[in-house]
Design a protein that fits this description.
Shape: globular
Oligomer: single chain
Radius of gyration: 19 Å
Number of strands: 8
Structural class: alpha/beta
CATH topology: Rossmann fold
Strand content: 15-25%
CATH class: Alpha Beta
């Protein structure tokens, strides 16, 4: 499977994951977004673009900083995610937000329009090169681009979960599940091997960005318990499919093994685990 094909499959999964994303993942990614916006130095009156906005987590954080005169534009390819973002925007009553359906690698904006561009883990590896070039184009001179990224292998709880799942998942998957597995594995391999942090920094410099800086932050995520973490993982579409294709006995064994191994992350009756995120900042000269 090519990286482009894998990206299309994962995009379809992303479209179906709105409910799970809002319920379980947004609280975590809001923490990341807070530091992302801080690194970008967003201030009142600026015009800011949020690339791969999803349900608008980073856009809402940035909107707190640009008022009263500034404006935030969030773009994403996912209509379901943007529908949720627009609904939240209406509820918030903020007038400084707008969400548009758009591909990150083909930004439909004039050159030099934005004071800052941000992306909260929202840039696909498959189109990273084209997206960075487009971001550079739409930034004004002196504008700041800040994005963040993380890898599964750098999050101990996620790594433990995945290792156990590998042992128990069906060896005779349906065509649907086989395609989903292949797409996710392809993107993970590509990200770990061909699009690591050093490559991303080099891509920024080659695109023309200067003063490229990297910060690595380690967050401690705190959940109520193991079950909340399992809900966080298994409400995602691809993992729901993994469970659905297991026999009742094998599913029970998987869940029992997960609960046993994940006990190592229990501290003071809370499920706690470290999550390392890399933040990259560059300037258009």
């Amino acid at each position: 499977m090519s990286i482009e094909q894998a990206d299309k499959v994962v995009q379809q999964l992303w479209d179906e994951d709105v409910t799970a994303w809002q319920a379980h993942w947004v609280p975590v990614f809001r923490i990341f977004a807070h530091d992302l916006v801080s690194d970008a130095g967003i201030c009142p009156g600026q015009l800011v673009l949020d690339v791969g906005t999803g349900t608008g987590v980073a856009a809402f954080e940035a909107a707190k900083c640009v008022t009263p005169q500034g404006f935030i534009v969030g773009i994403d390819h996912s209509e379901p995610m943007l529908t949720a973002a627009k609904a939240d925007s209406r509820k918030s009553g903020r007038k400084s937000l707008r969400f548009l359906t758009m591909e990150a690698e083909h930004l439909l904006f004039p050159d030099g329009l934005f004071d800052a561009v941000i992306s909260n883990c929202g840039i696909s590896y498959a189109t990273f090169h084209q997206t960075i070039a487009e971001v550079f184009r739409v930034l004004r001179k002196g504008g700041i681009f800040t994005f963040n990224d993380w890898h599964l292998k750098d999050v101990p709880a996620h790594r433990t979960f995945s290792n156990i799942l590998q042992q128990y998942r069906t060896g005779n998957p349906s065509r649907k599940l086989r395609i989903q597995r292949g797409a996710i594995a392809t993107l993970e391999r590509f990200g770990n091997r061909d699009m690591d942090l050093n490559v991303q920094v080099r891509e920024l410099r080659q695109a023309g960005f200067v003063n490229v800086q990297v910060k690595r932050r380690k967050y401690t995520i705190v959940l109520r318990g193991i079950q909340q973490y399992l809900d966080m993982r298994f409400t995602r579409v691809a993992l729901k499919q993994e469970l659905a294709e297991l026999s009742r006995v094998r599913r029970a064994r998987l869940l029992n093994e997960l609960r046993k191994e994940l006990k190592q992350f229990m501290r003071n009756k809370r499920f706690k685990f470290d999550w390392e995120v890399s933040f990259v900042r560059g300037k258009r000269p």
